[in-house]
């Protein structure tokens, strides 16, 4: 979502005649679009501001801006403006009114309405896959998570606006659409009586792109209808990101996740039963307060049972505003790190074994870009988001059939057939 927010900011500013420069030294204004989900990326913001050269305006946007507000102006004199997650649509007037006149300021007010901005294709990260935000915010309040405080309560974008953006991307030759939100499967257009599964079904039927994806789905609702809709439409990619966070029901409860280990696994197996080629990815937090060896082993065994395509894993990071701050962060960093490495090792082995099964097989891939390090190679992705490298003069956006010859845990290599 941060990438998509940057696209929107770029869109607004380009319309006003600002120019996006690749070389930081040439910039007059630097906008830092920040993430507050863990402490480390937040700290990186300050070290980055420290390195910014003299004479430049510095604007901090995103979740750290929303969470810290005025503190950021106080903390470093180099910071000129702090703009929260709901105020991007005004960034052009902020630039014109404040920065030109050397006035500093903070705007971190939450707003209840959805602000409609469709980034044009020249301001987007890719011309192959396109992000479409369908909702923002979260009402789940998982005990460790700062998101409900930085993105606010859920706001759902109207159906007709989402469809308009999807049509725009398809018209411009995009091959893949990625519907975005903190909690996409709770999206609905109440006025029109349209639910997330109806939206997916509409896009899969009426929008001409090869793959439709969505991220992130909360695994706590029982999604029978989602299985049905996916089974009906082959253009909904057989890949779902379902963050489990932990394999221990005791820890899940303390995290305020609303499902048990058994419910999570049942849901996964129901998907697998009805959609034999579906693949999953997930997020995990290790070292949550009071996590013991048994809890951790339950997480490892869950990972082994599901056999994820890929995962993101993190050491628990205590965050401002959250309930978990009241729990004693009782584990040694050494233990947390050991658990993280162990978990990553288990996942690495699963990925390697899964990838090895593909040797000698032909997979269809979407070329995403030329490999910046090897000019005669391209980087492509499979439907389940595995990275495939191969020699080719194919252009981004082309689909190719690749015979897989070599694999590692994180990528595949092959040749065009
Ligand atoms: N809405 C998504 C998650 C969004 S945050 C969901 O419900 O799953 C992205 C990921 O960051 C989370 O899945 C979680 O694994 C991680 N995360 C969030 N807060 C964290 C914290 N305090 N410490 C460590 N990891 C955290
Ligand atoms: Fe955070 Fe996701 Fe939980 Fe919402 S559902 S509070 S975004 S982890």
Outline:
By secondary structure, this protein is α/β, with parallel strands linked by helices. It has helices at 2-15, 39-51, 63-68, 70-75, 91-99, 147-150, 159-171, 196-206, 224-232, 249-254, 261-274, 293-306, 333-356, and strands at residues 29-34, 57-62, 79-83, 105-107, 129-133, 135-136, 155-156, 176-180, 188-189, 194-195, 211-215, 239-241, 279-286, 310-315, 362-370, 377-381, 387-391, 399-407, 411-416.
Structure, explained:
By secondary structure, the chain is an alpha/beta fold. Among the domains are: 2-107, no CATH class; 362-416, Nucleic acid-binding proteins (OB fold (Dihydrolipoamide Acetyltransferase, E2P), Beta Barrel), CATH 2.40.50. Helices cover 34% and strands 23% of the residues. It has 13 helices and 19 strands. A five-stranded mixed β-barrel has the order 15-16-17-19-18. A hairpin with a 6-residue loop joins strand 15 (362-370) and strand 16.
